[in-house]
Amino acid sequence: MPSELFLKFREEVQGFRVGLNLEFYNSPINECQGKLVLKPLSDDRRWKFIYEPLHHDVRLVSKKIPITKFLNLQVGIGHNIQSHAIGWKWKLTSSLGGDGISRIRNKTCVGLCPGVDLRFGWRADYVLPEFTGAVGTGDALFNMNSGRLEASLDRIETILTHTATSNPSPKLDNDVSPSLNVSLSP
Q1: Could you give the C-alpha distances from 20 to 23, 98, 99, 105, 119, in angstroms and in order?
Q2: CA 20/CA 161 separation, integer angstroms
Q3: What distance in Å separates the CA atoms of residue 175 and residue 162, rounded to the nearest whole number?
Q4: Which pick of 25, 49, 54, 158 has the fewest CB atoms within 10 Å?
Q5: Is the distance from CB of 64 to CB of 76 less than 8 angstroms?
Q6: How far apart are CA 22 and CA 56, in angstroms?
Q7: How far apart are CA 105 and CA 97, in angstroms?
Q8: Cα four-point dihedral sign 59, 85, 35, 174
Q9: What's the chain's average pLDDT?
Q10: DSSP letter for each residue of 36-72
């Protein structure tokens, strides 16, 4: 049984993407979250607006800002409607690194045919091989640790896109494309 199931509905209108996310979590407790998401469709999109009706949270989040090739910064400001609290958060992330072990995280997208895409979220945890040796210390003359690699497929998303217009235009302003995203995470 997957620990996460994501069902995402998308509608592209007037240069913006409006979305409804239904997120089901099995671990550590069964939980369902709903989110409304609004973000621009342009290539240089710098923000997204998120509203969580069950938690009464409103957030404005920046896109991930590259600091180096493998290091990103994301900043957000939020407001909880019930408690009238305002706060901000920042997050420094990387596709490399992990909890005491080296980790690579990535997403790979495969287009099966027009309007049907599969996106895989995967990770690889690794320990590099190590060679050591010593003379006159009581340690082994030569020692080798062959290392370790563990890989897992954490998320599978099915993305179905339907274009409602009969004459698709390359302009984003005239394009209306609802899409359905389904994500499964073990």
Answers
A1: 10, 31, 32, 25, 18
A2: 15
A3: 11
A4: 54
A5: no
A6: 15
A7: 9
A8: negative
A9: 75
A10: EEEEE-STT--EEEEEETTTTEEEEEEPPEESSSSEE
